[in-house]
Amino acid sequence: SPEMVPPPARVFAELVSAGASTPTPAPAGRGGPSLPPGRQVHVSGSAELSAGPDRARVSLRLGSRKEAAGAARSSVSRRLEYIAQSARQRGVPEENMTVTEDFSRAENTYQMEAEVCITFSDFGKMQNICNLLIEKLGTSITISPPHFYHTPEAVDTLRRQVCVAAVGNTRRKAQEVCRLFGQSLGKPLLIREEETKEWGGHVDSHLSNSPDSLTLQERIQNATAYASCRVFAVFEIKGKENRRNKLL
Asked: Is residue 141 a contact partner of residue 134, using CB atoms and an 8 Å limit?
C-alpha cells in the first residue's frame, strides 16, 4: 500500500491585496484563466508517495526422460497434479495458474518438460506454497525466484493518491500562511497540477532482470514504485480568523 514520504519543506506563497486583479501566471504555451479580483493567497506544494508491488509471478520447471513415452509423461503429470492441487488447497484461483508442456524425443529416450507459472497477490501464501513444493518434490522441481510487479490498477491508484496528497499539503500551507497574518482561508479559486514524476517499479512482464542472489525483501524493494507531484493553487482570503475556531 502507498506510504507517505515527508515532502520537501518548500513553500511558495504570495499574498495579493484587495485591489489587485493580476491574472494567475500561465504555463508556457498555455493560456491561464483570469481570476476574480480580491484578496488571494498563491501557494505551491508537493508530495511524494511510494507503493510496493502488488503481484508476484513464480515459475516452476520440471521434466522427465524415459525410454518409454508413457513413463515420461506419467512422471511429469503426477507432479503437475500435485502442484495444482497444493495451490488450489491454499486458495490460489485456477485462472492464476498456467501450464505449458513440451514433449520431444532424444536418441532412444523420450523427454517430457513442463512449466507452471503461478501469479500471487499474497506473498506470504507464495512463500508457504514454494516451501512446501521444495520439501515434497526436492530436486525434481526447479523454482525460479519470484518476479514482483505492479498491476495497472495499482499504478493508477498511486498516481491519484500522490496528486491528492500534494493538493492537501498545498491547502495546509495556505492555511498556515493565512493564520500567520490572522486571516481565514477561503475557497480555492485555482488548482493546477504542474509537474508529476514516476520512477522505480516493475511492469507486468514475464522477464526479470534481477539477479538470483537477491533476497525476497531486496526484490520487493527493487520493485517498489515512487511518484511525486507538484501543484499550484490560489485560494481566496475570507477575512479575519475566527478565534473560537482557532481554539478548537
From this structure: yes
pLDDT by residue (tens digit) across 3-18? 544 444 444 445 555 4
Residue 47 shares a structural domain with residue 67? no
Task: Work out the burial of residue 159: count CB atoms within 10 Å of its CB; fewer than 13 is exposed, 13-18 middle, 19 or more buried.
Answer: middle
Name residue, grid cell 500500500. 1
Residue 137 and residue 108 share a domain: yes
Give residue 46's domain range.
40-52+152-203+216-238
Between CA 127 and CA 216 the distance in angstroms is 10
Cα 155–159–160 angle (5° rounding)?
Answer: 120
Q: Mutual orientation of helices 123-137 and 69-89 as an angle, nearest 10°?
A: 140
In whole numbers, what is the pLDDT of the chain averaged over residues?
A: 85
Per the DSSP assignment, residues forming a β-bridge with 42 are 14, 234
